[in-house]
Design brief:
With 73 residues, the protein is an all-alpha fold. It is built from 3 helices and no strands. The two termini are 12 Å apart.
Length: 73
């Protein structure tokens, strides 16, 4: 039972991270706003970090979710 909860939680966490970036890019705040400010300030290292962190976190969420699904079988 707890594995299903863990898989669903990582899925929702992944969705929340992706939505934060997308909503922010259209002007509603979040990580997209941070990216826009870093782009305006020519902070390329900051942009790389801001873009890399959600990708790594999404990858980790996928790995955790996949392992939880495998252990359910």
């Amino acid at each position: 039972m707890w594995l299903r909860y863990a898989a669903l939680s990582t899925y929702h966490w992944d969705l929340a991270m992706r939505e934060t970036v997308i909503v922010g890019l259209v002007g509603a705040g979040g990580l997209g706003r941070v990216l826009a400010q870093q782009n305006a300030g020519f902070d390329r290292a900051g942009m790389l970090t801001t873009l890399t962190a959600p990708v790594i976190l999404a990858f980790l969420a996928d790995v955790i979710s996949a392992r939880a699904r495998l252990s359910l079988r």
